[in-house]
Write a structure and sequence with these properties.
The protein is 66% helix and 7% strand. By secondary structure, the protein is mostly helical. It has two domains: 83 residues, Winged helix-like DNA-binding domain superfamily/Winged helix DNA-binding domain (Arc Repressor Mutant, subunit A), CATH 1.10.10; 86 residues. A hairpin with a 6-residue loop joins strand 1 and strand 2. Helix 2 crosses helix 3 and helix 6 runs antiparallel to helix 7.
Length: 187
């Protein structure tokens, strides 16, 4: 399980501030919109939602969906939850911690063959190309929502950040490949 930084509470409050949701819809939304910079597991989501209810920051209601008779718990933010979210948004963000195993491997690259690193970098480039496309697709989707008078400008900004980050990482990997190949050619 991912380390709980205590921010799950605010992720859930932010999601509920948009609209009432189930734990499942929160998980799917996080996977689709935030996966380039934030992850939450079901093991974090459901206990956090229960805690929000216990603290009076959210309330629950049961809804039957699609006539299948199966009830789902829908969570809705309270006024106290909106205040808690607003207070947190005013706090200075913590400094981000980045972990890329690829960077460790490149750093220790003198201990392996250049082809190994070049292969890792090729995979990294492909992965980042795919992620840039996903972010650009989300940005485009937000544009379509705007045409329907649905404002997702702030979500669009997070996708734009993802597109810039993944583009920069891809560009770095291309340059790293060039430098490794040049180093080998000099031998």
């Amino acid at each position: 399980m991912k380390e709980n930084t205590g921010k799950s509470k605010y992720v859930m409050l932010g999601m509920l501030a948009r609209m009432p949701q189930t734990g499942y819809t929160i998980k799917k939304w996080i996977e689709n919109e935030y996966s380039h910079f934030w992850q939450e597991s079901f093991g974090q989501i459901y206990p956090t939602l229960k805690k929000l209810v216990a603290e009076g920051l959210a309330v629950t209601s049961n809804h039957t969906q699609n006539g299948n008779g199966r009830g789902q718990i829908v969570y809705t933010i309270t006024d106290a939850g909106r205040k808690e979210l607003s207070d947190w948004l005013k706090e200075e963000p913590e400094i981000e911690k980045i972990r890329y195993e690829l960077l460790l491997k490149v750093s220790f690259g003198e201990n392996t063959e250049p082809e190994v690193l070049l292969g890792h970098l090729d995979n990294f480039i492909r992965r980042n190309d795919k992620l840039v496309k996903e972010m650009n697709g989300y940005i485009e989707l937000c544009g379509q929502f705007k045409e329907q008078d649905i404002d997702c400008s702030y979500s669009q900004l997070t996708a734009l950040c993802g597109a810039y980050i993944y583009s920069a990482m891809r560009d770095w990997a291309v340059e790293a490949k060039r430098i490794i190949k040049e180093k080998e050619d000099d031998k």
